[in-house]
Design a protein that fits this description.
It is a single chain. The chain is mainly α. Helices cover 78% and strands 0% of the residues. The protein has helices at 3-33, 35-40, 42-75, 81-112, 122-142, 151-169, 178-196, 213-233.
Length: 234
């Protein structure tokens, strides 16, 4: 893995860990302040409680996976750029999948609870559809099968949907969630660059040229680095 990919990897997983640390703090604060309401009105708030617990569990897993990946990349224990990209897509899948499941749980609650007069809005349906599409694209990006010919195109489409979902989350966001959204925006940009553009080492060779001596040197050095990393793993 070249230096460009290493720097992008460390930056991405650091931002992801910071973002979901903020989520954990906000969720724990909200959970502790609402615990009496959950106890007394569990029939009306069970969907909210399930979503909160689910987000807490996934948030902890994401932070642990991010920190572990940062340590492995720093120590040179991960030699494959593709492995890092796959891990980043898995983290996005966990986040988007949790959002999708929470939306479905809320939808089931409001559709089955006769005591509420909740009407499903177009915005909710649109976000639900885009979240479902993003989930499917992320699964296709992660699955290792020869049937998928152009995986990079699928990854690009997945990131495009992720950007749409992040932009759709901006209106009406509270002050506590703003830092999370900012960190996640930067992480998404870096994750996209890591998946699409980091095959070439821009730090060693700032100008991409197919015939320059610099590129051939970079390729040789990258092969040596990969071989050294593989030997260390053995």
């Amino acid at each position: 893995m070249n230096k460009t990919a290493k720097i992008l990897s460390i930056s991405f997983f650091s931002l992801f860990a910071f973002a979901f640390f903020i989520v954990l703090v906000n969720l724990l604060s909200s959970f502790l302040t609402s615990i009496d309401s959950y106890v007394h009105y569990i029939g009306q708030l069970w969907h909210n409680l399930v979503s909160t617990i689910l987000r807490l569990i996934v948030g902890v897993i994401i932070i642990i996976m991010s920190i572990k990946t940062i340590l492995k990349v720093t120590k040179g224990e991960i030699a494959s750029r593709e492995k890092v990209v796959t891990t980043s897509l898995i983290l996005f899948l966990m986040y988007i999948g949790t959002s999708l499941l929470s939306s479905i749980i809320s939808l089931i609650f409001y559709c089955t609870n006769t005591s509420t007069n909740y009407s499903i809005g177009y915005q909710f349906v649109a976000i639900l559809i885009f979240t479902l599409i993003a989930t499917v694209l992320l699964v296709l990006s992660i699955v290792n099968t020869p049937k998928i010919k152009n995986k990079k195109l699928i990854i690009i489409l997945a990131y495009a949907i992720l950007f749409v979902l992040l932009i759709a989350s901006c209106p009406g966001i509270d002050a506590l969630s703003m830092p999370f959204l900012v960190f996640l925006f930067f992480a998404t940009f870096i994750g996209f660059a890591l998946a699409v553009f980091s095959e070439y080492d821009f730090i060693k060779c700032p100008f991409k040229c197919k015939t320059c001596e610099c590129e051939s040197k970079c390729e040789k050095e990258e092969i040596k680095e990969d071989e050294a990393s593989l030997n260390n793993e053995k």
